[in-house]
Specification:
This protein is mainly α. It is built from 11 helices and no strands.
Length: 236
């Protein structure tokens, strides 16, 4: 079986998942780096440090292989990522404006690490799904998905500073990243619904899925109020 034949059997759905989870994950990381640079200055230093922590956490997260159906685990992983995209910027902002500097910086670094660790789980889970589709040498799957992973990170690294940061700000961008994660979680849940059907966790998952959509919608509607709250914290 040739490389072209193998990679062509990876479904469009899986390719889209890989691209968009990479975009959302890297977008969340850059949002946290931006928050850190605003709170403590040194934009270049904070971006470099956060990137180093994020990459380290990515590697460690990729080593963790959760047991069970890959599609089901991906759905839960994306649900968690959505929650972190929503709340982690606010955690960093609150800690930077309400806690001692050294402790606040530790919380910010921990937030970047946790986001990176959970992001690191994405590639193995999606690769596992793709491998089941292809049924061929894993190296073909790895090569195809890795290109999409890098492309997604490149899109985020360009789109965030050029458009999102200037036009909608960090908090709306975090809701956008959360929305991408939540949409993929819903798609994975729907695709692998038979695996959930007889489990009590199915109802729990649906509850948090609906809650996530409500939070994201509320965030967009209450954008001005959230910005005012953030400004109040900054001037305290």
């Amino acid at each position: 079986m040739t490389k072209a034949t193998s990679s062509s059997k990876i479904s469009l759905k899986v390719r889209q998942w890989m691209l968009f989870v990479a975009i959302a994950s890297f977008l969340t990381e850059m949002i946290l780096a931006q928050m850190a640079s605003v709170l403590w200055g040194g934009v270049l230093t904070k971006y470099i440090l956060s990137m180093g922590i994020f990459i380290l956490a990515l590697g460690l997260g990729s080593l963790y292989q959760p047991k069970g159906v890959a599609g089901e685990k991906l759905a839960w992983q994306q649900l968690v990522m959505s929650g972190m995209s929503i709340f982690s910027p606010w955690l960093v902002l609150w800690s930077g404006t309400h806690l001692y500097s050294w402790f606040a910086k530790f919380i910010a670094a921990s937030a970047v690490f946790v986001v990176g660790f959970w992001s690191g789980m994405e590639f193995p889970l999606i690769a596992s799904i793709a491998s089941e589709e292809v049924g061929a040498d894993f190296s073909f799957v790895f090569s195809e998905l890795l290109r999409l992973d890098y492309l997604g990170m490149a899109i985020s690294s360009l789109f965030f500073p050029v458009f999102l940061l200037r036009n909608i700000g960090v908090f709306q961008a975090s809701f956008l990243a959360a929305g991408v994660n939540l949409f993929i979680a819903a798609m994975a849940f729907w695709q692998y619904m038979p695996g959930f059907r007889l489990k009590k966790s199915s109802f729990k998952f649906q509850f948090f899925l609906v809650l996530g959509f409500i939070l994201i919608a509320s965030g967009w509607v209450l954008n001005k109020e959230l910005i005012s709250l953030a400004q109040e914290w900054m001037i305290q």
